[in-house]
Amino acid sequence: MQVQNLQRIESGDYYIMTDEIELNTARQNTNGYLIEKEPFYVQSKNEVAIFEAAYDARLPVMLKGPTGCGKTRYVEYMAYRLKRPLITVACHEDLFASDLIGRYLLKSNETVWVDGPLTNAVRIGAICYLDEIVEARKDTTVVIHPLTDNRRTLSIDKKSEIIHAHKGFMMVISYNPGYQSVFCAWNMDATDGRRCTRTCSVWNDQCTNVLDRSCLGEHHPAAHAPTL
Question: Which end of the chain has the lower number of beta carbons within 10 A, N or C?
């Protein structure tokens, strides 16, 4: 038998009944996504400073590198270092936009809305890591676009709702250049400076990181770090 108790919602002055084994909905389950133990990670160059600079500037980050080079571990380490929740989504060809945003589901005798991982990250200010983004369907990249520029918004058409991202929210995407020959709109030619209008690019080749600092601005301290 589950014991029910009264818990005060942190953002309000009223009480609700909740199961003892469930988190309060007002807390958005942030503790479930926090990394409590520091992941083992050895910094090779100044990739930590670049990531922190991108986070401070509210810029998304794109990681490029072959399988096993440490992209996921790098993101986990930075989430721990920044003390931000981390929500990871492994993208695949059957991943729809609704899988990221959320959908209506039947529960008992009613239909309830359930947030997807991306919506949850936007609400609670988590780092949303979309692994192997090139494997996802095109409609998913359309949803991501407004979150990668100055708007930082997520549109939920089914609810006619526009969510402004929490100040702690950060988008991180990764892909293996060996899997796909054509990437989405973010992957422009290296000589085209426009690619940094959406992301800071991190190239990781066999654990040797080459970071693109042109998007940080000449006045940012990390932009003048020693050349890799």
Answer: N
Which residues are bridge partners to 131 per DSSP? Answer: 90
> What are the angstrom distances between the C-alpha of 189 and each of 46, 130, 142, 153, 194?
24, 22, 20, 27, 9
Record the tokens describing residue 143, joined without a space: 């949803």
Domains and CATH numbers, the chain: 1-33 (no CATH), 38-224 (3.40.50.300)
Q: Give the residue-averaged pLDDT of 55-79.
A: 94
**What global pTM score does this model have?**
0.71
Condensed to tens digits (0 to 9), the pLDDT of residues 121-151 reads 999 999 999 999 988 888 888 899 999 999 9
Question: 176-183 — which CB contacts under 8 Å span 24+ positions?
Answer: 176/64, 176/65, 176/66, 176/67, 176/132, 176/134, 177/64, 177/65, 177/66, 178/66, 178/67, 179/132, 179/134, 179/135, 180/134, 180/135, 183/134
Closest CA to 97 of 133, 143, 130: 143
